Amino acid sequence: MKALLVSDIESDRFYEYYQPEKLKGFDVIISCGDLKVEYLEFLVTMAKCPLLYVHGNHDENFSHEPDGCICIDDKIIEFNGLRIMGLGGSYRYRSGKYMYTEKQMKHRIHKLKFSLMRHKGFDILVTHAPARHLNDFDNLPHRGFECFNELLQKYTPKFFFHGHIHRSYGTNIPQIDKVGDTTVINAFECCITEI
User: Fold this and answer.
1) CA triplet 193, 194, 195: central angle to 5 degrees?
2) Do residues 122 and 164 touch, judged by C-beta distance below 8 A?
3) Of 24, 31, 99, 134, which has the highest C-beta tally within 10 A?
4) Residue 145 has what DSSP assignment?
């Protein structure tokens, strides 16, 4: 299954310099947050495939939820035989609709425990923020969640997709990483991957 991952900034490749063939052949688009509603609606319309998304910390400014797109925040959904879990938002560094303390994020995960049991875990974790000490920073705005590490250790999903950490922040920020058997992808701007 061919997936287009997007997050944080609109990619000129698919928007400003759009050509129909650039969005052909995708089975799914997954947004890890902080993208404009209009951009998500454009992608889902032009690619003609489902677009799944979680909210980023700046998405409180949405005028409306993006039409034609599927919000997977605080859910586990089944898509093409894969169990996908969504947890949007970032570490709380100011007041905001999609900002959470470590305790609040743990509570969100705890509320999914019956869904986790029913689905017998998940194959893909989609978040906005990274996991703690996995491509994050020590400052509060860019800190990852420790509870994401606990999820990865307990359920060993095939993939973990996140955004929030702009690769332009430094030269040593990888787009693709590995933690045990889990492939970790920073979806900043865009990344094409096979699932």
Assistant:
1) 115
2) no
3) 31
4) B
- Count Cα atoms within 13 angstroms, Cβ side, for 142: 14
Alpha helices in 73-180 (DSSP H): 102-110, 113-119, 146-155
Sheet hosting strand 2-7, strand order edge to edge: 70-71, 51-53, 28-31, 2-7, 189-194
Domains of the chain: 2-194 (3.60.21.10)
Distance CA 73, CA 4 (A): 18
Structure tokens at 58: 């700046």
78-108 pLDDT per residue, tens: 999 999 999 999 999 999 999 999 999 999 9
Residue with tokens 């909210």: 55
To the question of pTM greater than 0.90 for the whole model, the response is yes
- Tokens for 71? 């919000």
Question: What sign does the dihedral 176-179-183-189 (CA atoms) show?
Answer: negative
**Distance of alpha carbon 152 from alpha carbon 160, whole angstroms:** 8
169 secondary structure, DSSP code: G
> Token pair of 126, please?
């989609």
Question: Can you tell me whether residue 70 is helix, strand or coil?
Answer: strand
Say how far apart CA 128 and CA 157 lie, in whole Å. Answer: 17
